[in-house]
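Pasting as-is:
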Amino acid sequence: MDNDKNNSEENSIDEQYLMSIMAGSTKKESQSQEHESSKEKLITKQKIKSKKSVEVTYAEQFLTHHTMTKRGDKSIYIRPEYHERLLRIIQIIADDQIPLYAYLDNILAYHFELFEKEITDDFNNKYRPIF
């Protein structure tokens, strides 16, 4: 049995490469390059997240009072399970000290700050003036 185990370790098969061959791709280098580029993107996003998390805590970032004095005259609809989760976060972590609309506004502000470049690039790529 030990001999079988050693043989399987020595003859390891790259299943991803075999699947790519079956799908029509015969270049192993392109697959490894794609894999490396996806890893780089993930690392970059993690660095952005870690920089923000080092500077401020979650509660400081999202669960603080906001300059809005009221919710305004707009309504939004969210999934009931998200509504329940958000309310529980506010009640437990923020000790029920901020309203739901302020928490959502903080989340959206962070989202727009984090993805501003991507949103702007996508918007500009799809926007075409009439004249």
